[in-house]
User: What shape does this take?
Amino acid sequence: MELNINGESRSTNADSSTPLLWVLRDELNLTGTKFGCGIAACGACTVHVDGQPVRSCVTPTSAVANLKIKTIESLGTLDQPHPLQMAWINEQVPQCGYCQSGMLMAAAALLDKNPTPSDDEIDAAMTNLCRCGTYQRVRVAIHRAAAAMKKGGAA
Assistant: This one.
């Protein structure tokens, strides 16, 4: 089966029912996407599928075969971090960091749809769980990134 991941065609021999998360991590070595709960509750495994945030731990690979998949590895680079990544650093969002790739992907999907979200819209979109409880920092960082993106610069 062929998958379009981060703009590249990637082949997999995985069974079509294998969750996308395990193909990404175990077969394609894209380990930025994390396993948290396995039941789509926590959001650590969030990726984009055709621009929508999707929990990859419960998404069969067959369901995304002809769609565009983006992982955290596509969000920014060391030389050019995404404004969300800069805002996360500047607002000291990560504590343990485990949920952060999923949080960033959910936040990126939100800002792609709504470049100036309100606090209520952020709260509604950010359904990811953070055991460290940095939700207030997440909200501030999303506002900071939105402002930076509006100006065309870094957060």
